[in-house]
Amino acid sequence: MRRPRRFNRRLPPSAHKGKPGAPYVASGPRKKQEAIMSLRFLDLARPSRQHWLGYLLLLPAVALVALIIVYPLFVSLDLSFQKIGMATLSAPRKPFTLENYHKLFASPDFWNSCWVTIKLVVVVSAACFAVGLGTALLVNNRFKGRTLARLFVALPWAVPEVIAVVIFAWIFDSSFGLMNWLFIKLGITSQMINWFSEPTAAFWVVAITMIWKGYPFVSIMTLAGLQSIPEDFYNAAKVDGANAFQRFWYITIPVLMPVLGVTSVLVVLWVFRDLSIIKVLTDGGPLKATQTLSIMTYDQAFGFFNMGYASAIGIVTLVLCVVASLLMLGRKSQAMY
């Protein structure tokens, strides 16, 4: 016996047009696409347990960053508006005052420290980039012993700062230093130079020490960027007749701009905050010729125990670092585009 034919009682989508509350029925590929989109919407609207697990795993790191960085920053900001010393840190807080900032901006020592810091940032950053870029281009070539050469380039960066300071303190010692012996042998001078008693000489000793300690970082970062440049770029430029300088200027530098921009910001921030090299070599002297903002902050906090005044110097230094970073990142973006 023939089975009765079944009819689909569901009306087509066109039959529901214009009727309020009528369901929309999708068919074919559109139905599949809407199902996928609804699943995505539900996945974003209602995070799964895996999402919450990721947030929970990140929570200890966020709490640690807040404890180490954010909380001390707010404490320093609060102390900068208080006239407070080491012995009165636990005393009840007084109303906020701008006395520390008034005293700071009226102090000749502060402006001298700003000038020394700016000079040191410009000299050390420029020299680190010149030496670091040159050594990176050198060890990027293929030659025998390249691995050993790269090791020697990175060696100063791996040496602790205190050991680097001891080495350069011996090199520039006024009695038996290597630099005085070399100058006398070459006939540049006939008597010993007291490098740490003259302001200009002391500044350059500090700058040379920081350059020797900082250029390997620039070299390592630049070398990593150089190795990411395809050889096809240089081969095509050679076919077009470009010489070595043109290949460097029109291929190497533009491709390295993102790396150089980030590296420049890190080097500038390092020079701004460095304390150990200057503290051990000259302690800010002679005649405050090497007193940077970091040295002034340390002396006011742990030498004179003016915690409020030292916090004000630290906040101003932080603002200068942020402004310098934003300016450098802005110039990097303009150079890229």
Automatic annotation (TrEMBL):
> Residue ranges of region Disordered?
1-29
Its membrane topology is listed as:
Multi-pass membrane protein
UniProt keyword Membrane present: yes
How is this protein annotated for GO cellular component? plasma membrane
For this protein, the record's Pfam families field holds: BPD_transp_1
Q: Where in the cell is it found?
A: Cell membrane
Residues covered by the ABC transmembrane type-1 domain: 114-328
Transmembrane among keywords: yes
Q: Which family does it belong to?
A: Belongs to the binding-protein-dependent transport system permease family.
Query: What is the name listed in the Swiss-Prot or TrEMBL entry for this protein?
Result: ABC transporter, permease
Species name? Sinorhizobium meliloti (strain SM11)
